[in-house]
């Protein structure tokens, strides 16, 4: 699975050439063990704060993406990791309250404003595989021009789902996903916090059907793509485990909406009743 580029090819190349010299690389981080809570920004995140805090009390690490970093700070939750992927310049405004205890995992395709905004904090660089001309970049550039070891993390286009793969690369094998709704709440909100709709996304619907149920969700093209990517990712991970390319892992999804319901069809929801609803 390859994410498609959202910036011109030449711009990606120039960014990687500049950012690949960042002094700290995620490949050098200590290997982790145990569990990690990965928080997207879906509207169900607000209702699940108590469950997140319970998992953290059990020594789970807290992993945020984009604006969930600042949102969870308002809930007295400090991120162990914050992952940033999107190449757009507005990402620099996502983290307004950086913390010295947080490791910021910033992709080499991110805008230079992100690095400037967080330069005094604990930034570690990682490389996201992006598809241009049916080839995964920045692999050719790094192989030719980078003298230090590097690793490319391929995968879905959203930072939430890609975070699962980055966290796996750091050593985590037990994943708890919150706020991955991928659809609008009943009140029309797409996020647990204020965030303008992406200008390149259009409204749409997506239906999940099993033998016993069929539910249509109101969503947009970006969120619907995340749900599709999640299903493809689950299938790929299963294949990799069967072939011995991956260690066994556990994924538990919480909340409501399109993607959590899709997870329940695989028996991966944290609420056994949701799994029963979609699988029996």
Structure in words:
The chain is an alpha/beta fold and 280 residues long. Helix content is 31%, strand content 21%. The protein is built from nine helices and 13 strands. The strands form three sheets. Strands 9-6-5-4-3-2-10-13 form an eight-stranded parallel β-sheet.
Question: What ranges have pLDDT less than 50 throughout 5 or more consecutive residues?
Answer: none
How many β-strands, per DSSP? 13
Distance, first to last CA: 30 Å
The helix fraction, in percent, is: 25-40%
Number of helices: 9
Q: Order of helices and strands, N to C?
A: EHEHEHEEHEEEHEHEEEHEHH
Backbone shape: globular
Mean pLDDT metric: 95
What share of residues are in beta strands?
15-25%
Please give the largest β-sheet.
Answer: 8 strands, parallel
Q: Order of strands in the sheet with the most strands?
A: 9-6-5-4-3-2-10-13
Structural class designation: alpha/beta
Using only CA atoms, what is the Rg? 18 Å
Write the layout of secondary structure elements.
Elements: E1 3-4, H1 9-19, E2 35-39, H2 49-57, E3 61-65, H3 68-73, E4 81-84, E5 103-107, H4 112-117, E6 122-128, E7 130-132, E8 135-137, H5 139-145, E9 152-153, H6 159-170, E10 174-178, E11 203-209, E12 214-220, H7 221-242, E13 250-253, H8 258-264, H9 272-279
Parallel strand pairs: 1-7, 2-3, 2-10, 3-4, 4-5, 5-6, 6-9, 10-13
Antiparallel strand pairs: 7-8, 11-12
Helix pairs in contact: 7-8, 8-9
């Amino acid at each position: 699975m390859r994410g498609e580029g959202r910036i011109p090819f030449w711009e990606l190349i120039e960014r990687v050439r500049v950012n690949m010299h960042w002094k700290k690389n995620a490949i050098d981080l200590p290997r982790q063990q145990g569990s990690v809570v990965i928080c997207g920004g879906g509207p169900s995140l607000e209702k699940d704060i108590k469950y997140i805090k319970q998992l953290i009390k059990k020594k789970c690490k807290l992993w945020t993406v984009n604006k969930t970093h600042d949102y969870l700070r308002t809930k007295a939750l400090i991120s162990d990791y914050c992952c940033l992927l999107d190449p757009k310049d507005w990402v620099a405004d996502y983290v307004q309250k950086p913390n010295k205890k947080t490791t910021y995992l910033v992709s080499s395709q991110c805008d230079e404003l992100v690095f400037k905004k967080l330069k005094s904090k604990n930034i570690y660089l990682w490389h996201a595989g992006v598809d241009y001309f049916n080839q995964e970049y920045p692999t050719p550039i790094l192989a030719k021009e980078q003298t230090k070891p590097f690793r490319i993390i391929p995968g879905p286009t959203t930072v939430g789902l890609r975070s699962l793969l980055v966290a796996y690369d750091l050593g985590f094998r037990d994943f708890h996903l919150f706020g991955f709704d991928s659809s609008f709440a009943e009140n029309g909100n797409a996020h647990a916090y204020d965030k303008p709709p992406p200008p390149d996304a259009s409204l749409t619907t997506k239906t999940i059907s099993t033998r016993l149920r069929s539910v249509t969700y109101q969503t947009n093209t970006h969120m619907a793509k995340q749900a599709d990517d999640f299903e493809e990712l689950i299938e790929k991970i299963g294949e990799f485990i069967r072939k011995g390319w991956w260690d066994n892992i556990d994924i538990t999804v919480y909340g409501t909406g399109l993607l959590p319901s899709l997870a329940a069809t695989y028996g991966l929801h944290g609420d056994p009743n949701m799994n029963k609803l979609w699988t029996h």
